[in-house]
Design a protein that fits this description.
Blueprint: E1 9-13, H1 17-29, E2 34-38, H2 41-48, E3 56-59, H3 68-77, E4 85-90, H4 95-104, E5 108-111, H5 119-127, E6 132-134
Parallel strand pairs: 1-2, 1-3, 3-4, 4-5, 5-6
Amino acid sequence: MTISLADAYIMVVEDDPDAHLIMLDLLRMAGASRCYSRKSVASAIQFAAKLPRMDLFLADINMPLESGYDLLEQVRAHETLKSARVVAVTAGTLQDDVDRARELGFDGFIGKPLMADKFADQVQRVLAGETVWVWR
């Protein structure tokens, strides 16, 4: 099932204020209107569970306290969130990082710095059910 950016419920989980704002701005400029963001895994899960649905989590891997890996585990175990797609968006772009994300079941991997001209298309492809694996 394809969900458009305009209709998608998207949660950005990112502790870095600049990266956080960049992702939200790029999504909104591309027409996304249901973008939410939290700086921690616990807050993201708690907030997302109250929404009508959650289609996509864009998660930094390296955050203090809980990581993007923790987010993936909690989303997959959560009754109402488990069908959401989860994409790692991180500066850790070593092959080991990509391999680990793939093995753990992420639906994609987008390396930082983001490519502003391609980010919205990458997100739309994930919403369409594709996997997106882009790193440098």
